[in-house]
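Anyone up for a design puzzle?
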């Protein structure tokens, strides 16, 4: 140690790391025991990485061919050590992995903890910051590591405040030893029985042996975990708790799995798969960096958990394991791309998962709707890309709607269509209340013609791709001309009175066309308004109004498209204006009508004070 201090370096943590450490160390989180799960999981990853490397570099394992994890504890010395003979870390690895956080997930994690105020940091592993959880129980952590391909080894030490030190220090064997100096308030973890139960609770199916040794006794070290890959076992020998623990281990979700899908595929390609549908929505589901959660094994040897091709991104919430003997053990990660075997497996597991979801939807509607609420928006992304699963996906869709309080599938919709209806009507807007209160919906509700509420942002996108369900086209009711006068319950016969006002209404439309010609493309008499006087709609060929808003929100440049103004010829205000046109200032009254249409559409007026002035003028006249 003495002469090593010469090259001791003092370094500061990246600001985000300090923030996180502060949060972790001071959290009142009750399940502090998860620190051990996190450290064991890191050790197991390090062993898997080395085993993978050894496939291409034959002699790299040297003498110690058995990869294992050893945990030592001493009450007297107040320490816990976690040691593995995995791949190890170089000096630079220590700095990069333990001193900085490359992932943007961390800030999100910090924010989510702060906003929840619950101190629930059990999801820490989802954000790739598991190592820092050791500061929940330790005041100082030392990491002594030797990378398998380096001769030198290094010691990293930090008290989890702002700084850490690194120095070169001899370590005989490759791998990593993490030593925790246990804090006074965490001494319960120095009890070896307690550690034993934590290991079997969280880490039973880690595929490397985990040994525990109490340094204060003469007892021999003891192997704690079961270790055999669960997915290779016979289904009938697996208990529900085993499945759950394995799920928690691989996914870093801590709920009960909603469904466990364990199967053996035999045929052209053989593989075993153990997949899960989660109950709850993982926090990072919509994080753009989130990839699928499938680990790929070849005959028990871990190959990668970064095979994008094995599961479609729109099933990225499905964690699990796929093990196939039909992939060569020597496959490189690059070779996994455009690989026909992987393609076949992808097809197989995707179909299997979709079938299971479909079964859930037919057998247990309530459970399915909860599931749909959590994952529907992700699954819909599958309709936006080209693939073979559209039919299955379409049958899973569920929508809130104008027709009933129950959510509706597309088949339900078709069943409830009115006579002669040829299109599936929808209204897309992420604000459900806006849809419910919008003038566009009025006539549909009155005539009992169902309208689907498309409330996920992704709806606008898949609708561009999937234009039809069965023989019925999807039709936005906020775009173009929607003529439903011949559908559903007929409105009272108003022809007589209509005739009388027709001429005057025509005068009003001509006037509006003239006065507003720079702002709108056309003025028409509406066939769908009931209560509201006016309505703005996108032109048939133009972009859907909500699509345009969505793109603006994402700062996308959109052509400013002119809208069509529809007026309700039966609305008392419109009638009154048209009958007294000459008593009004034409410019002002036209502008008021347009402003009102904008307000109803949820737009912000560019000149609200002029609207107020015009309105006031009208009143005091
Ligand atoms: P995560 O494991 O989710 O990536 P951690 O904060 O737990 O996040 O660890 C950060 C990184 O440090 C790991 O990705 C890994 O590269 C490295 N690391 C941690 N523990 C070990 C270990 N025992 N052996 C080798 N590398 C490790």
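Challenge accepted. My sequence:
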């Amino acid at each position: 140690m003495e002469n090593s201090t010469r090259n001791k370096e003092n370094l500061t943590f990246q600001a985000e790391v300090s923030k996180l450490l502060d949060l972790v160390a001071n959290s009142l989180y009750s399940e502090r025991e998860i620190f051990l799960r996190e450290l064991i999981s890191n050790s197991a990853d390090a062993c898997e990485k080395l085993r993978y490397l050894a496939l291409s570099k034959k002699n790299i394992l040297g003498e110690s061919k058995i990869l294992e994890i050893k945990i030592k504890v001493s009450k007297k010395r107040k320490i816990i050590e976690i040691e593995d003979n995995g791949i190890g870390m170089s000096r630079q690895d220590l700095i990069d992995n333990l001193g900085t956080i490359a992932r943007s997930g961390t800030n999100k994690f910090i924010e989510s903890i702060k906003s929840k105020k619950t101190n629930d940091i059990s999801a820490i592993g989802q954000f790739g910051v598991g190592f820092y959880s050791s500061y929940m129980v330790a005041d100082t952590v030392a990491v002594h590591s030797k990378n398998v391909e380096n001769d030198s080894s290094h010691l990293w030490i930090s008290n989890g405040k702002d700084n850490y030190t690194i120095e070169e220090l001899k370590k005989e064997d490759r791998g990593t030893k993490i030593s925790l100096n246990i804090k006074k308030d965490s001494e319960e973890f120095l009890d070896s029985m307690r550690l034993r139960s934590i290991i079997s609770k969280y880490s039973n199916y880690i595929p490397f042996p985990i040994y525990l040794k109490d340094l204060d006794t003469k007892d021999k070290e003891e192997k704690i975990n079961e270790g055999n890959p669960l997915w290779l076992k016979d289904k009938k020998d697996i208990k529900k708790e085993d499945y759950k623990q394995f799920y928690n281990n691989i996914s870093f979700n801590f709920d009960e799995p909603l469904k466990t899908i364990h199967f053996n595929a035999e045929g052209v390609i053989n593989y075993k798969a153990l997949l899960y549908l989660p109950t709850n929505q993982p926090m990072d589901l919509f994080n753009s960096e989130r990839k699928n959660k499938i680990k790929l094994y070849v005959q028990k040897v871990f190959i990668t958990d970064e095979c994008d091709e094995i599961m479609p991104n729109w099933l990225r919430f499905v964690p699990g394991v796929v093990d196939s003997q039909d992939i060569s053990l020597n496959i490189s990660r690059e070779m996994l791309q455009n690989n026909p075997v992987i393609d076949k497996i992808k097809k197989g597991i995707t179909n299997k998962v979709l079938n299971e979801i479909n079964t859930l939807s037919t057998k247990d509607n309530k459970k399915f709707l909860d599931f749909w609420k959590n994952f529907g928006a992700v699954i819909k992304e599958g309709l936006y890309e080209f693939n073979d699963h559209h039919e299955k996906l379409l049958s899973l869709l569920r929508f809130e709607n104008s027709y009933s309080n129950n959510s509706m599938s597309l088949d339900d919709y078709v069943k409830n269509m009115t006579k002669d209806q040829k299109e599936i009507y929808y209204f897309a807007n992420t604000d459900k209340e806006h849809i419910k209160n919008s003038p566009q919906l009025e006539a549909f509700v009155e005539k009992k013609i169902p309208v689907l509420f498309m409330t996920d942002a992704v709806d606008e996108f898949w609708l561009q791709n999937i234009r039809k369900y069965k023989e019925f086209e999807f039709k936005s009711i906020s775009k173009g001309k929607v003529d439903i006068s011949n559908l559903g319950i007929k409105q009272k016969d108003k022809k007589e009175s209509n005739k009388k006002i027709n001429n005057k209404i025509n005068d009003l439309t001509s006037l509006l066309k003239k006065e507003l010609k720079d702002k709108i493309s056309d003025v028409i008499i509406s066939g769908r308004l009931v209560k509201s006087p006016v309505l703005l709609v996108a032109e048939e060929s133009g972009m859907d109004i909500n699509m345009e808003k969505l793109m603006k929100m994402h700062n996308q440049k959109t052509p400013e498209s002119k809208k069509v103004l529809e007026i309700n010829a039966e609305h008392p205000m419109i009638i009154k204006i048209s009958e007294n046109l000459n008593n009004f200032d034409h410019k002002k009254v036209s502008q008021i009508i347009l402003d009102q249409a904008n307000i109803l559409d949820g737009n912000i007026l560019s000149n609200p004070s002029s609207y107020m002035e015009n309105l006031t003028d009208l009143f005091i006249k």
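A detail worth pointing out: The longest helix spans residues 340-363.
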